[in-house]
Amino acid sequence: MLVNTPTELMEDTQESRLDQSITYHNHVDMTLVLGSVAIRFGEALQRCRTERNLSQESLAFQSDVDRVFISHIEQGKHQPTITTIVKLAGGLGMNRPGNIGDCFT
Question: What is the pTM assigned to this prediction?
């Protein structure tokens, strides 16, 4: 039967805390990155929409995406799926989904 000494237990506890801290900070960093991307995408979507003189309601109708969801995307509160991005690109009159990248320039 193996018995851990107090020193070994302390080292294990410190390593565990360090692992938890690293995991927490990596999660926080990724959350900040994703939040930043959501905000930038929302701003780009709003810019593309307004450049085309579209209201959120008309974009919602043309893209079959809920108007409130479009509002939340533009505010950076929600992150759209690829399917939703393709729908929005169609609603914005972009023939190819890859063209939505033009809004980010």
Answer: 0.65
Amino acid at 59: L
* Ranges of H-type helices in the chain: 6-51, 56-63, 67-74, 82-91
Domain parsing of the chain, residue ranges: 6-104
Q: Which residues contact 90 (CB under 8 A, 6 or more apart)?
A: 62, 63, 97
The answer to whether 100 and 88 are in contact (CB under 8 A) is yes
CATH superfamily label, 6-104:
lambda repressor-like DNA-binding domains (1.10.260.40)
Q: What is the pLDDT along the chain (105 residues), one digit of tens a residue?
A: 455 555 554 555 555 555 555 555 555 566 666 668 888 899 999 999 999 999 999 999 999 999 999 999 999 999 999 999 989 999 998 876 566 666 655
Residues shown for the chain: 105
